[in-house]
Amino acid sequence: MPNTSLTQQTHPFNETLLDASERLRSILIALYSIDLAGGTLGVIVMSHHLFRRRSQSVMTIIIINLLVLHTLLLLSIPFRLSYYILRKWKFGTFACKLASAMIYLHMYTTFAFYIAIIIIRLFQLEFKKCYTTTWVTAVWLVGALVISPVFLSYYGTSKTYDSSECFQFHQEIQETPIVIANYCLVGILLVICTVLTTIQLSVIYRLAVKYWPDIYSHVEFRAQAKSFFFILVTLVCFMPHHVFRIYYIQNYHLDKDHKLIPYNEIFLALTTMCCLDMLSVKEKAFDQKISLMSARFELPC
């Protein structure tokens, strides 16, 4: 005779897990929908604005590359939404790995471009456009010819996964090289963000004291304040994922019911919200940024 009390206790517990899973899935759908709509609008508006200006400044080159990056990510989001809405992956294993690779490639390449913008403005560096084009091209080549092939060749190959599921390569986290790589990426991002945030805040404080009370009437202060925006995007979008990643790695062996996986997916989805950055760059402000950067940071090749 079955244990009735045990069944009654287990049933509510399973319902609770199911409700929690549905809520987390709804959050994922909402995040990616907002990202797709807002990111697409931002890319269209900024592309139109750049086309009208026809500027060839160093900062414009970086902004254009950010637009291309965001566009590539936005093209992959409908596949993710399809999976979360239909609860089934219908595009094959390679497409799943490609969509997974895209979100990480976008995150770290965007981070690299953000850091470049921050450093150029922070230290008022002067670059020739040909040098900027060279290092930007190098970033793309490393991502496309080194990181992506390695990711697609090895990620998700050490274990067997159901072809109808996607973004479930959680078993890979047990592999020592994957753990080391994750810790290194987390450490690098934390150190860079901490150092640049400290320097940027000190510069803003120094300028605020120097130009007070008419601080916003000075182009130099406005430029540094706007530069701090990219640090905020990094802290809000990228940092939570990496901090949670440490917790996820350390507690994966205790997560028998895989409760942490949806939370990891939510923090990963949060990284894609950086695509909304173009919506925050108003036309007048962008004109001022490009003019200021062109005057200070552009040298003939």
UniProtKB/TrEMBL annotation:
Q: Where is the G-protein coupled receptors family 1 profile domain?
A: 38-247
Entry annotated with the keyword Transmembrane: yes
Q: Which InterPro entries match?
A: GP183-like, GPCR_Rhodpsn, GPCR_Rhodpsn_7TM
Name its cellular compartments: Membrane
Where are its TM segments located? 27-46, 58-81, 101-123, 135-155, 180-207, 228-248
Q: What are the record keywords, sorted?
A: G-protein coupled receptor, Membrane, Receptor, Transducer, Transmembrane, Transmembrane helix
- Name the GO cellular-component terms: membrane
Q: Could you tell me what this protein is called?
A: G-protein coupled receptors family 1 profile domain-containing protein
